[in-house]
Amino acid sequence: MKTLKDKIVQEGKVLSDIVLKVDSFLNHQIDPQLMKEIGEEFAARFKNAGITKILTIESSGIAPAVMTGLILDVPVVFARKRKSVTLSDDLYTASVYSYTKKETNDIAVSIDYIDSDDTVLIIDDFLANGQALLGLLNIVKQAGASTAGAGIVIEKGFQPGGDLIRENGTRVESLAIVSSLKHGKVDFLEEAVE
Ligand code: 5GP
């Protein structure tokens, strides 16, 4: 998605060979116009997938997820992050290890908000090692629902998450795939179709 890639080049800050900071439009301040375009793009890519619900994770997945939900006209659920969640009959839970933050969070979704007859589209801001996405996929599985795929705003293609999840058989649609952050520069994987 060209507007997203341009924004990353203009405003993204390369913090190291593996970490990209995009606080000016996604992770702290939010650019609503860009989020709207992102929502339109995800909605277009998944329009024939029979989506009934969108699932994301707080907090940075919420903005692109809501825009997508608005266009597909389906509810948006966000998994809540906690240091630890006590097992409960009312919640689906999963443990998510963040290599970036070097900490484990439990994520939880109320059983009230995903049903076994839902077809779920998962949305998240970044895909790196894939742990957050695996946790969300696990929650959809616990609910007995099906997953149509995952929409990712920025995938870091040089980290293993994308391959891991695709090899699992899950459709992953990333709007920008970063191939390298070396030498303080953002390079993108060129997609065949824009
Ligand atoms: P994963 O579980 O795929 O390793 O990482 C997913 C989560 O880590 C994302 O939802 C995001 O919050 C965070 N993350 C991973 N890499 C980056 C990065 O380079 N920049 C930012 N801003 N967040 C990242």
TrEMBL record:
Binding site for xanthine: L20, N27, K156
Entry keyword Lipid metabolism: no
Enzyme class: transferase
EC number, as in UniProt: 2.4.2.22
GO biological process: purine ribonucleoside salvage; xanthine metabolic process; XMP salvage
GO-annotated molecular function: xanthine phosphoribosyltransferase activity
Cellular component terms (Gene Ontology): cytoplasm
Listed SUPFAM superfamilies: PRTase-like
Major localization class: cytoplasm
Catalytic activity: XMP + diphosphate = xanthine + 5-phospho-alpha-D-ribose 1-diphosphate
Subunit structure: Homodimer.
Family: Belongs to the purine/pyrimidine phosphoribosyltransferase family. Xpt subfamily.
Function recorded in the entry: Converts the preformed base xanthine, a product of nucleic acid breakdown, to xanthosine 5'-monophosphate (XMP), so it can be reused for RNA or DNA synthesis.
NCBIfam families: PRK09219.1, XPRTase
Full protein name: Xanthine phosphoribosyltransferase
Lineage of the species this protein comes from: Bacteria, Bacillati, Bacillota, Bacilli, Bacillales
